[in-house]
Every structure is written in C-alpha cells, then in structure tokens.
Amino acid sequence: MPCKYVIEDIEKGINEANWLARFKQNFSKTIGSEAGYWEEDLRLAREGAGFLAVYTPTDPEAQRVLRVLQPLNPKQMRRYMKFAIERLV
Prior knowledge:
Layout: H1 3-15, H2 19-30, H3 34-46, H4 59-69, E1 78-80, E2 85-87
Antiparallel strand pairs: 1-2
Helix pairs in contact: 1-3, 2-3
C-alpha cells in the first residue's frame, strides 16, 4: 500500500471516530493492541515507507513469508491473528 493511503486511512480513523471508537482506541493503546501501532505506522508512512499485507493463516506460512522478506530488511513486520498481534521484526 502506498504511504499516502496509509496516512489518510489512519488520520481518518482518528479524526472521524465517535466517542465509542475513541474509547476503544485508547483502551487498545493501553493494552498494546492494534491502535497502539497506528502512531508508529503513521510515522513510518510520513517517512515514505510502503506497506504490504500478506494473508498467512498458519504458522508455517507466516514463517515462509518472514524468510522471503527478511533479507529485504523491513522496518517491521506484524502478524495479525484473531486475538493477538505478533511482532515478527
């Protein structure tokens, strides 16, 4: 995904959130969930970073993607699972 899209999407999610969404965002930041990564993603996007989403439903698939992409020195990699976010890099 281009950095411009990521910046617009994150800023829209923050700026257009109703009170319940803001509560969820703040709670999510507190427990280290998805909203806690928004600030980091926003910073990277503003620096011009690109973003790639890859569907990896199993551990072996996630490890294969990690092996393929790790030589490219990604700034970060995360795996979003049903109830957790795993930081791979």
